[in-house]
Amino acid sequence: xxxxxxxxxxxxxxxxxxxxxxxxxxxxxxxxxxxxHPKNFTPVCTTELGxxxxxxxxxxxxxxxxxxLSVDKLVDHDKWxxxxxxxxGTALNFPLIADHDRKVATLYGMIHPNASDTMxxxxxxxxxxxxxxxxxxNYPASTGRNFDEILRVIDSLQLTAQHKVxxxxxxxxxxDVIIVPAVSNEEAKERxxxxxxxxxxxxxxxxxxx
Length: 210
Known about the structure:
Layout: E1 13-14, E2 21-22, H1 23-27, E3 31-37, H2 43-54, H3 56-61, E4 64-70, H4 74-88, E5 96-98, H5 103-107, E6 122-127, E7 133-139, H6 147-162, E8 165-166, E9 177-179, H7 185-191, E10 197-200, E11 203-206
Helix pairs in contact: 2-4
């Protein structure tokens, strides 16, 4: 059965480009992104891994650890990392799981038989410090992912985990947010003393909490 938002994600042990890891230990107390690639030495994957490496500081300032996965052997990861650095201008700077037995891919439902019985689709899992799934995405093998969007989602998840707000369509960090309907006006006055704009009783706009 596919993982659902709110489910505790499975733990696993794996070989990676940065040595053996136990997933729960690696992500303990942190936000995490786990994302899969159909296969090593494929063009779209190469661009994705290079761009993710360039975002290292952006993930770090959000307290997020990143881990990739591909269903190839560790020795192939080492060779591929050299290609990524050469073609994308940035060296791989996060662990890449060598899931040649597809153990992790099966645990997380990354293999979709209608697409391929052997290769993972482009799955993304955002995991909270409680080790629960907060967001998941699946892209077809032919379409590169938008990692700027993944950062935007993380900004929203982290903000809404701390405050009783939701983020509107196309929201970006620093923009106005919505007070959730479960918060009464009395409680809202305590939480947002600067006030809010009420478009409808259920649609109350307020500046992003700091």
